[in-house]
Specification:
Distance between the termini of chain B: 32 Å
Strand content of chain B: 35-45%
Strand content of chain A: 25-35%
Order of helices and strands of chain A: EEEEEEHEEHEHEHEHE
CATH superfamily of the largest domain in chain A: Nucleotide-binding domain of ferredoxin-NADP reductase (FNR) module
Distance between the termini of chain A: 39 Å
Number of helices of chain B: 1
Strand order of the largest sheet of chain A: 5-4-7-2-3-6
Largest sheet of chain B: 5 strands, antiparallel
Helix content of chain A: 10-25%
CATH topology of the largest domain in chain A: Rossmann fold
CATH class of the largest domain in chain A: Alpha Beta
Shape of chain A: globular
Structural class of chain A: alpha/beta
CATH architecture of the largest domain in chain A: 3-Layer(aba) Sandwich
Oligomer: heterodimer
Number of domains of chain B: 1
Largest sheet of chain A: 6 strands, antiparallel
Number of domains of chain A: 2
Radius of gyration of chain A: 18 Å
Helix content of chain B: under 10%
Shape of chain B: globular
Strand order of the largest sheet of chain B: 1-4-5-6-7
Structural class of chain B: mainly beta
Chain lengths: 247, 88
């Protein structure tokens, strides 16, 4: 196929006003965004956020949508220490501040209640964000699809949406693993996800499950490869990679 | 799970969903791209994406061939789809 040059003529950027801000952990916060003209979104999609400095320098990053379809738009942002966008979003942004967003984006890493397969959700760190949107949609839609969630965090204090995730929900089983430090008396997993853990947690391939895996690239590669080892067809393992992370 | 060489900075095609909307005018991450080198067909969302400062490079996960490249200069995005046999 050939190539071309495209002027940025499609003005796809919308102005967003920051609404309520919720501190989820010491490093992650959820920002409600008011976006006139927002078309609504599907569970699992993301938005691109663009910030413009006073000198005109622009930086954009993608952030998963945390809210369920039908709920007001919200993103949850995890601080990347040397990042260009997340320090402002997690440390500076206040209600009433303006930024630009583009989206919703994504037609592959999305879940709909009409998909009846048992769900395996695997999150590393802030990879939980799009999966939380799916879990909220499942509840909202009254879906009976059985879910197993494997959620890897550095420590208990780093678990995003902890209260919500740990609230008992019929048909949803949650498995935590804390890779760096564990509180006294911790009974969950305490290591990186490995094949033995997947064997214990994941649906059997014979159950014809559908898997969504999201998080740092190394986490996603390792979990996706492990699921394929367990017999999951690669097309039933949908992935989204966030790049490097110290997870 | 083995420790095959992984580039921890590699993203995937989900990350360029917005860029592709800008270029093609429609959602493309669920489209299928076929590698012009090895013939592997893959969802755009599953392709390997590298975003160093100067541009964006999309590679085949099977043979590592460059499938797409994007460079933005003064508001104009140059698009190279040379490595794709097909996309749609």
């Amino acid at each position: 196929m050939a190539g071309t040059a495209v002027r940025g003529r499609l003005n796809t950027w919308l102005t967003a006003t920051v609404g309520a801000v919720t501190e989820e952990t010491a490093r992650a916060r959820t920002l409600m965004l008011d976006v006139p003209g927002w078309a609504g979104h599907r569970a699992g999609q993301h938005v691109d956020v663009r910030l413009t400095a006073e000198d005109g320098y622009q930086a954009e990053r993608a952030y998963s949508i945390a809210s369920a379809p039908g709920e007001p738009l919200a993103i949850t942002v995890d601080l990347v220490d040397d990042g260009e966008v997340s320090p402002w979003l997690t440390r500076e942004a206040r209600p009433g501040d303006l930024m630009e967003v583009r989206g919703p984006i994504g037609g592959y890493f999305v879940w709909e209640p009409g998909l009846s397969a048992p769900l395996l959700l695997a999150a590393g760190g802030s990879g939980i964000v799009p999966l939380r949107s799916m879990l909220r949609l499942r509840a909202q839609a009254g879906s009976q699809v059985p879910v197993r969630l494997l959620y890897s965090s550095r420590s208990l204090d780093d678990v995003i949406y902890r209260a919500e995730i740990d609230t008992a929900t019929a048909g949803v089983t949650v498995f935590h693993t804390l890779t760096r430090s564990q509180p006294p008396g911790w009974t969950g997993y305490a290591r990186r996800v490995d094949e033995r853990m997947l064997t214990e947690v994941a649906w059997k391939a014979a159950d014809k499950p559908l898997a969504y895996v999201c998080g740092p690239t190394s986490f996603v590669e390792s979990v996706a490869a492990g699921l394929v080892e367990l017999g999951y067809p690669p097309v039933r393992v949908r992935t989204e990679r966030f790049g490097a992370s110290g997870l | 799970m083995d420790d095959t060489a992984l580039d921890d900075t590699a993203l995937d095609g989900n990350a360029i969903g917005g860029l592709l909307i800008e270029i093609f005018g429609t959602e493309m991450t669920a489209a299928v791209g076929t590698c012009g080198s090895c013939g592997t067909a893959s969802r755009v969302a599953e392709l390997a994406v590298y975003m160093p400062a100067l541009g964006t490079v999309v590679r085949c996960r099977s043979c590592d061939a460059v499938l797409m490249a994007f460079v933005r200069v003064r508001g104009v995005t140059c698009v190279d789809l040379e490595g794709l046999a097909s996309l749609g």
